[in-house]
Write a structure and sequence with these properties.
The chain has 237 residues and is α/β, with parallel strands linked by helices. The longest helix is centred in the last third of the chain and has 31 residues. The protein contains eleven helices and six strands. A hairpin with a 2-residue loop joins β2 and β3. The two termini are 24 Å apart. 35% of the residues are buried. A six-stranded mixed β-sheet has the order 3-2-1-4-5-6, with helices on both faces.
Length: 237
């Protein structure tokens, strides 16, 4: 069970930026009130150098991150089980480490919180993206950015749900052509990099605010959405 002495000590927030194939771009995380980002692909090394963001392998980041969580007897917080699955797949032989950490699926907690306290307001929310197709319109309402509208923590206008992968891919392609000289990128390409990084930071910051709100309304919702990181229904492979 997650400790409750402090949001920033007990809970460590994590958001990976990957594509559907499982290629990594970036991780944003916050531990003890300190927000950081790590580049997870050499394809963005020019961006990492320019912005002085560390560049490391996904496996190394995952291990260091979880060792930090374990040292604080903390709980990883992420939106959905995607980060949970990612951490397990990155460290299949680190069962002891995985088993020593708790995991809070904030999306699960948010669903219960909405049903109990915010259903009317949730049903009245306008579309997150007015121009989205029918498939996306069904998925968007349950997204982190959509739900955070219920707590007055709105995404920036350039958040652009669903476009982070294409933004990173554009930057990777441009950096490759320019031999990773970030300053040689066009203004549009630099803007895509900035927006992609900003998107990741918003996701982490919005999880912090959503967790605070749900805990204040009903701490048991958070407790019941918390589980061992190493799930019993998997071998960790």
């Amino acid at each position: 069970m997650a400790t409750t002495s402090s949001d920033h000590v007990a809970y460590q927030f994590l958001d990976f930026e990957t594509n559907k194939k499982g290629d990594f771009y970036l991780a944003g995380y916050e531990i003890a009130g300190d927000f950081r980002q790590v580049i997870l692909t050499p394809g963005l090394r020019g961006l990492a150098k320019e912005l002085q963001i560390p560049l490391t392998r996904p496996e190394d980041f995952a291990r260091d991150f979880l060792e930090g969580v374990r040292a604080q007897q903390g709980t990883v917080v992420a939106y959905s089980t995607a980060e949970q699955n990612t951490l397990m797949s990155l460290l299949p032989d680190e069962r002891s480490l995985l088993n020593s950490v708790q995991y809070l699926n904030l999306a699960k907690a948010a669903r219960v919180w909405i049903k109990r306290y915010k259903q009317k307001e949730f049903d009245a929310l306008p579309p997150l993206v007015k121009s989205a197709n029918d498939f996306s319109k069904k998925r968007h309402p349950k997204s982190l950015a959509s739900i955070c509208r219920l707590i007055g923590f709105d995404a920036p206008t350039d958040y652009a749900i669903g476009k982070t992968t294409s933004r990173f891919n554009t930057v990777i392609s441009a950096l490759e052509k320019k031999k990773h000289n970030y300053l040689s990128l066009t203004a549009v390409q630099k803007a895509k990099a900035t927006k992609a990084i900003k998107h990741n930071r918003f996701d982490v910051e919005s999880m912090i605010e959503l967790l605070k709100t749900i805990r204040k309304a009903d701490p048991k919702i958070i407790e019941r959405a918390t589980m061992p990181l190493l799930r019993s229904d998997t071998t960790g492979k």
